[in-house]
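re: the backbone from monday

yeah here it is again, tokenized this time
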């Protein structure tokens, strides 16, 4: 069971806004706003593994095409999990 599956099971009445292709980078849900929380590092790893990007290209793609996109009040939260 993935983290997303667990979240959907625990919040069956909520509609979450997901970032396409990054389900495996979900690390949780923010308690107050009920927005999905993603690991930036895991997103970059997925871009490198799945799309064959270099680390630098993965960072650039993630910031310019994913993290930088505000899509309303349910926009996911992006965190570094150092």
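seq for it, each position gets an aa:
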């Amino acid at each position: 069971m993935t983290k997303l599956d667990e979240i959907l099971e625990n919040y069956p009445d909520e509609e979450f806004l997901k970032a396409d292709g990054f389900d495996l980078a979900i690390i949780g849900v923010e308690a107050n706003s009920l927005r999905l929380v993603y690991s930036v590092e895991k997103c970059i790893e997925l871009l490198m593994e799945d799309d064959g990007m270099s680390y630098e290209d993965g960072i650039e793609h993630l910031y310019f095409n994913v993290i930088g996109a505000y899509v309303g009040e349910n926009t996911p939260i992006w965190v570094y999990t150092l």
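The chain has a mean pLDDT of 95. Helices lie at 3-10, 40-51, 55-67.
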